[in-house]
Specification:
Low-confidence stretches: 1-6, 9-29
Shape: globular
Number of helices: 2
Helix content: under 10%
Radius of gyration: 16 Å
Number of strands: 9
Order of helices and strands: HEEEEEEEEEH
Distance between the termini: 31 Å
Length: 175
């Protein structure tokens, strides 16, 4: 299954990890990864974030299963980097965009069929892979509201709605 952490950013990125961790207060450590060309953008996309103060609250049913997860935080700095098309042992940054987030709240609800519905408000980055709906590769940083579903069995994300400002990170970083 694709990692939700590699797919949703800012405090939303920590939601998947929080599904298996107890409710807690956390300060994000430096986190980064590079996606292969054709996954998040047509070029190799680096994503890193640091800082932030994130609060997580997990809601469970009578059997102890997570039914709702609330993640809220602010102060995260996200950097998206174009590492070009060619893979290499030491990637060289061609261009980058850095966004200081002013905060976000992400609610993840477990549906009766096992899928997840995620509603994010504030600053949220969303990476759509070629297997998603709509098909990627796309990386968009939203300032507003996004709603998407995740099928944990297939790893497919389905974008349901967005409102507010959308920044096309791939277009911003294109050569």
């Amino acid at each position: 299954m694709k990692s939700t952490i590699a797919r949703t950013l800012a405090p939303a990125a920590l939601a998947a990890a929080a599904l298996v961790a107890p409710a807690q207060s956390a300060t994000a450590e430096d986190i980064s990864f590079i996606l292969p060309a054709g996954t998040g953008c047509e070029f190799r996309l680096g994503v890193s974030w640091t800082g932030g103060n994130v609060q997580t609250k997990e809601f469970v049913d009578e059997e102890g299963n997570t039914v709702r997860l609330l993640v809220a935080g602010k102060g995260t700095v996200i950097t998206y980097t174009n590492y070009g098309m060619k893979p290499g042992r030491h990637p060289e940054a061609l261009d980058s965009v850095t966004i200081r987030t002013d905060g976000s709240v992400t609610e993840t609800v477990t549906n009766s069929d096992g899928t997840l519905t995620v509603t994010g408000t504030g600053h949220n980055g969303l990476i759509m892979f070629p297997t998603d709906e709509p098909a990627g590769p796309t990386t968009t940083h939203y300032i507003g509201k996004i709603v998407y579903n995740v099928d944990p069995a297939t790893g497919v994300f389905t974008l349901e709605s967005t409102s507010g400002q959308a920044i096309d990170i791939c277009a911003e970083l294109a050569d």
